[in-house]
Specification:
The protein is α/β, with parallel strands linked by helices. 43% of the residues lie in helices and 13% in strands.
Amino acid sequence: MALPLLNSGIKHCFNMEDFNSRAKASLPSPLYHYIEGGADDEITRYHNTEAFNQYQIIPRVLEDVTQVDMQTTVLGCTVDWPVLLAPTGMTRFFHHEGERAVARAADKFKTMYSLSTVSTTTIEDVAAATQGPKMFQLYVLRDPAINEELIDRCRLAKYDALCLTVDTVVQGNRERDLRTGMTVPPKPTLNGFVGFATRPSWCYRYFTSPALEMANLAHHIADGSSKVSSLGHYINGQFDRALNWRAAELIAERWQGQFAIKGIISAEDARRALDIGATAVIISNHGGRQLDTVPAPIEQVAEIADAVGGKMDIILDGGVRRGTHVLKALAMGATACMMGRPYLYGLAAGGQTGVERVLELLRNEIERAMILSGRPSLDKLDASFIRKL
C-alpha cells in the first residue's frame, strides 16, 4: 500500500522501537513516559512483549505461498488483517490530530479502530471521520445515566461493537507519572518543566489547538473539562468499584450487539463472560499499567481458548511489537490481536502518516512471516506452528 512522501524521521523507522525513539524525541518527557510507563516495578509492562520469545516458530517448507490471505472476521466485522487498534485515552496528548487521525489510518488499512470513553474526540465526530469498523470502549462510571447515555450514543452513531473495560476500578500505581510531574491535561510543573521546554513544536501545537478535554464527558464535568484539577479528579473519582458480573450483563443487554469484555486474564472469567452474553473476550492486563506481576496475555491464550474457543472471539491485547507475535497468538487460539502503544509512537512521530507507517510495517511483517513459515492463510495456523522453549 503506497504511502505519501514521509518526513526524514518517519521514513527511517523500520520497526516499533524506531518509532519509540522518534516518539521520545517528539514528546515532552512527561508525555512520553505516560505512554511508556507501567505500574509499580513495571515487570508486567515489559514481560508482555518478552513473553512472546518463550515460543519458537516451526516453519513448513515446499508449500505454495503465491497468495497470502490475512482476512478474518472479528466482532462481526470483516477486516483485511488480524490486528485491531486498541482504545487509548486522551490521544490528542500525543499529536494534535488525535483520534480522528488514528481512526482514518485504521480505515485505510481496513481494520477496526476502538475509541476510548476518555477520548479527546466525541463518539459522533469519530463516526463522521471514518466509514471503517469501530468499537467503543466503555469505562463504567458511578453515574448509571452517563453509562447509558454513552451506550445509546454509540448505537445512534452506528458503532459495530461495544467493549467493557473491567480492570480499572481503581487506577494503578504509575510511579513514572509521579516522578515526571505528569498531569491530566498536561501542565508544565516544576518537575516536568524542562521536558516541555525542550519540545517547542509540541508546545506550539498544544497551545494553538483547541483545549484538551474528555470530549464525551465534558458536559458532565461541572468545573469544565479543560481544568486540570477538575478533569483528573473527576475521572479518577468516577471509576465504580462496585462493578460486577450482573452490571456487565445489564450493559450487554442494553447494547444488544457485539460485546467484548476487556481485562480478562483467567479462563474462569472468560467462561463467565460467555455466560453473561459477551461475544468476545480481550485478554489484557492494561499494558501492565494496572496490577503488576500478572501473566502476559500471550501466556493465557491457549488456556482461555480451551475454555471458550469456538464460542466467542478471543483477542490478545498487550505486548505486540512484531508480526510474528501476532501469528503466535493466532496459532494458540486467538482470533485477532490489538495494539495501542505502537500506534501512539507513530502518532507522536508523525500524525496520521506515522500511524499508517506503523500499520504498514506490521502488516508487511505478518505477510512475510506467513510466507516464510509456509502458512499462506490464517486457517493454517495451529498448535503445530509453535513450540514452547
